[in-house]
Write a structure and sequence with these properties.
Length: 242
Amino acid sequence: MVLAAVILAVAVASYLAYDRVMAPFVSPTLADYPIQGIDISHHQGAIDWQALSRQAKVRFAIMKATEGGDHRDTRFAENWKAAKDAGIVRGAYHFFTFCRPGRDQARNLIEAVPVEPDALPIAIDLEFTGNCGKVPTLDELSTEIKAFFDELNGAYPGKPIFYLNQQFFEQYIKGNEARFPDHYLWLRSIAQEPRQNDCGDWSIWQFADNGRLDGIQGSVDLNALCPSETGFAHLFPVLTAN
């Protein structure tokens, strides 16, 4: 148990180290990244979705729906409906725990998230922070993620979105892409652009975890869509000036 705790602590420390740099950071502009959005959970409390919809940096919202085999976000159903009513493109994410079979987790998601054609593909959150005390091997992780999507059986349209940071990508995904379902990459890279060749290698960039927006009390995660990403283009009609 002591060794497992040490391994987990090192993994979490490495994960966080990839997120921060000392150099000044300027958030991506709307000119460079015209489609930006947020990701939220019950931690943001009651949200004024109409206020959010009036802000150019909130074209989409990816919201926590489920975690593990039985947890449901207490505000998901409310946020899902309210975001649609406000005209904001929605997505749902599942926090994938390393200590529960993938099929159990998929059934939890299916019971919580409606299938709707105007939503982003399902996202799964893959990270050590906030997870259980297990550091899976590549075989274990790929097997359980495959089981997760086998259980979903194509219920949700589009290939899934994998949320992770650079360290997790390099530890598990890089060079092993064939062992995982085909997916979009949603990269967490706080205070620096993702370390990829260009944004053609990723689809969504989470660039801040301390954003401030009208309609949300407290901080919120901020994201930008890769301008060359075409997989979601049908969800984002071109905005015209008034």
